Amino acid sequence: MPPGPLSREGPVFFVREELEGMATTTGADLACRALSREGAQVLFGHPGGAILPFYDALYNHRALRHVLCRHEQGAAHAADGYARATGRTGVCVATSGPGATNLVTGLAAAFMDGVPVVAVTGQVARPGIGTFAFQENDIVGVTIPVTKHGFLVQEVSDIPGVFSEAFRLAASGRPGPVLVDIPKDVQAALVDEKTFSLSGRKNPELVEPPQSTQAIKAEIQQVATLLSESKRPVLLVGRGVISSGTSGKLSYLAERNDLPVVTSLLGLDAFPASDPRALGMPGMHGTERANYSLQDADLVIGLGVRFDDRVIGRPDRFAPNARIVHFDVDATAIERTMRVDIAVVADLSESLKMLLPLVPKADRSAWWERIREWNREADPTEDPPRPGYRRMGPLGAREAIRSVAHKISESNAIAVSDVGQHQMWLAQELGDALPGSHLTSGGLGAMGYALPAGLGAAIGQPDRSVWVVAGDGGFQMSLQELATVVQEGIPLRIAVIDNGYLGMVRQWQERFYGRRYSATQISGPDLVALGKAYGIPTWRIDRSEQLDSTLSLAAIEEGPVLIWMQVRQEENVYPMVESGAALDEMVTESERVPG
Amino acid sequence: MSQFVLVARLQDVTGSLERLLGLLRRRALPIASLSLYQAEDDILEVVLRFGDLDTPEDRVAAEVSSLYDVLSVRRPDQASCDATRELAVVKTNGDLELLVPETVSDVLQRHSSDSMELSGTPRAIDQALVYLQEQGLISGVSRSGEMFPPGPHEIDT
Fold first, then answer.
1. N or C: which terminus of chain A carries fewer CB neighbours within 10 A?
2. CA distance A161 to A164
């Protein structure tokens, strides 16, 4: 039936009399059923006018837990955190117009980092589309660059198939966000529920054929040959190892062929930091041994990593003597930033399964001797106190984060960091982390990510402790979600590293703009009073000697807890490779020349 | 000019062309020419000819293939890429009983009582027009000039 005359409510598919005697349901109910069928258990959302029929249907679907976030950006980040921590697809829900546009940053963060999220948005009724109706926005159009795909559901009969496609697409290949936009009249449309089967896909032609392993056989053989010939190989590991569930295969490969393993920011939890073959993080704030090993290597094998600018530095001077091999499920990731010699485009699980039997045992003692020479500590000015002694004085930021990282490792917790200096310090200090235990917005670098993402992670992993580490700038971008944490009883442990600055920007202003601190000094609320307002136990510390006891107290609290760490103001993150420099041109604190 | 040409088949649904063009814009891929036509019910075929590319051609093809709406991508052979075609609208002298040789029928797309449309290589159009002229059938001709790409009916060069 074509759309009826313009009205706020819009047309329905049948008048009620026509449906007498038929088992009827609504488009919104079909959507809820489809979500359940696809395995969704938790929805992070915020209701509004154009999504009302969906929320009405949700009332009857008690198996779908709804978490009422205080801002749609928080809902998108929470769905992202849930997905990263569980490996399942996260779901967020918003109304049309501003509700939908508020999702955009969260979707972009998930898109950049390859996180499976399905976003469900309400849209104005079909006759209102294109008329500047109240809260109308072309959200499918707006999100084209930050989603794998967007569906505008135009017929109620499409709902089951669209959800099936959306979940398949979100989780397949390189995972990412998918948007499903449902006009209000389509949600409200009455249909004979027998008419629509919940099985089947919208368009069977679009289902990807099973991947042929034959296609990559030759490349795999070439990689095995390169490995056997290489004297100085390095594995460069990214988040693809986590999303493909291949951490175990990675460990086996590294051990069997005695390979150094460098882990990107998003791959830190793919390989244990305590493993003797772990070299840590590369790139702008990477370790000396990671960066120098890459630069000196004769073979770099990238596994599920994007070779992004923060990792490789200047592309034409990255690993100048190395053959480059790139394993990735995403063909579009190949040669995005630099040339590669061999590309293996396939699911990592499949390609590593083929590679491992071809890899011989190896002993690379000579290469390890050389790597061990690169051991300048990241923070040479911070000598650890002698055993039995405790540091006293103003609290240092890195010192505080080191202690938090220790607590995280001790309790096998999930670490969620925001964006900025603290993010780099935590990445440098984090110990062993299971896959899916280090969450951060690596690609987009979205400040405000940590608190809502931590909330989502804690809901997805209720039996694990979750630590949120944020700066005072990022925390103020999403602190409204403290109310969500309290309402849902989420036992988050939140550490706010407060240096009174937008620290990373200030560091760049110090180094590259002659200390002209333009708009980076930032004030904030009294977090003890804020914690009290939300009913969250809160500690404020500003001295080293308060650190251990406070963290110990916070760790035994049931949670949520908030620790306000007021730290020295002008501490910088080192080592550092400046933009446009090669990885072996890094500087450390001791070499720093103030601007 | 670059000869890199891609032919993408995509679902004829709202937004599919926008998604394709948006991708090209975001990747800063220069388009030298683009043509679009309905290949089948619900399927569009888009012929993209790129300008000078900094991006490897395989990556461009992979990027286009990665779109959900894109059903397939192919790279036509060089001969097809090199081919051009021309359209001609011929005003004829009155009602015709069309019984024409292959020279004309091969390029004849449609005709009415007083006109015909021809499409083919410039050389094929020339030959057809010579025949029609010799028969005294033409009262006027309008030609498009050479065009790329070959379009739905690929031209035997």
1. N
2. 5
Closest-approach residue (CA) in chain B for A206: B71
State whether residue A144 sits within 8 Å of chain B by CB.
Answer: yes
Nearest CB among A144, A330, A331 relative to B19 is that of A144
Q: What are the structural domains of chain B?
A: 4-75 (3.30.70.260), 82-143 (3.30.70)
The token pair at A74 is 């928080």
Task: Count how many domains chain A has.
Answer: 3
**Domain contains A114:** yes
Determine whether the interchain pair B15/A203 forms a contact, defined as Cβ–Cβ distance below 8 Å: no
Query: In terms of domains, do A180 and A75 share one?
Result: yes
**Chain B residue with Cα closest to A331:** B62
A149 at B interface, C-beta within 8 A: yes
Q: Which residues of A touch B25 (CB under 8 A)?
A: none
Query: Which residue among B18, B22, B62 sits closest to A331, beta carbon to beta carbon?
Result: B62
Of A134, A221, A229, A231, the catalytic one is A134
Note down the domain range covering A352: 213-371
CA distance A455 to A520: 28
pTM of the complete model: 0.88
Task: For chain B, list residues whose CB is within 8 angstroms of any CB belonging to chain A.
Answer: 11, 14-15, 18-19, 22, 26, 56, 58-59, 62-63, 65-69, 71
CATH of residue A103:
3.40.50.970
Whether residues A99 and A166 fall in one domain: yes
Contact, A434 vs A408, CB < 8 A?
no
**Residue finishing a domain among A206, A233, A262:** A206
Give chain A positions within 8 Å (CB) of B19.
144, 149
Q: Does A315 touch chain B (CB under 8 A)?
A: no
- CATH code for the domain in which residue A293 is found: 3.40.50.1220
Instruction: Name chain B contacts of A332, Cβ cutoff 8 Å.
Output: 59, 62-63, 66
Residue A386 counted as domain residue: no
Chain A residues within an 8 Å CB radius of B10: none
Contact B18 A150 (CB under 8 A): no
Within chain B, where are the H helices? Answer: 16-26, 57-65, 78-82, 102-105, 122-134
> What is the ipTM score, two decimals?
0.80
Active site residue A510: no
| Alpha helices for A214-347 (secondary structure H) | 217-229, 240-243, 247-257, 288-296, 309-312
Q: Is residue A232 part of a domain?
A: yes
Beta bridge partners of A468: A416, A494
Q: For residue A72, indicate whether it is catalytic.
A: yes
Contact B15 A334 (CB under 8 A): no
Q: Is residue A507 annotated as a catalytic residue, yes or no?
A: no
pLDDT by residue for chain A (595 residues), tens only, comes to: 333 333 334 333 444 445 555 678 999 999 999 999 999 999 999 999 999 999 999 999 999 999 999 999 999 999 999 999 999 999 999 999 999 999 999 999 999 999 999 999 999 999 999 999 999 999 999 999 999 999 999 999 999 999 999 999 999 999 999 999 999 999 999 998 776 655 544 444 444 545 567 789 999 999 999 999 999 999 999 999 999 999 999 999 999 999 999 999 999 999 999 999 999 999 999 999 999 999 999 999 999 999 999 999 889 999 999 999 999 999 999 999 999 999 999 999 999 999 999 999 999 999 999 999 987 765 544 566 677 777 789 999 999 999 999 999 999 999 999 999 999 999 999 999 999 999 999 999 999 999 999 999 999 999 999 999 999 999 999 999 999 999 999 999 999 999 999 999 999 999 999 999 999 999 999 999 999 999 999 999 999 999 999 999 998 899 899 999 999 999 999 999 988 889 988 887 755 544 3
User: 3-state class of B23 per DSSP?
Assistant: helix
Do A422 and A470 sit in the same domain of this protein?
A: yes
On whether both A414 and A331 belong to a single domain, the answer is no
Strand ranges inside A329-480, DSSP E: 342-345, 414-417, 438-439, 466-471
Position A95 in a domain: yes
What contacts A584, CB < 8 A, 6 or more positions away?
Answer: A291, A292, A295, A296
Catalytic residue list contains A134:
yes
Q: CB under 8 Å to A428, separation ≥6 — which residues? A: A280, A281, A285, A287, A378
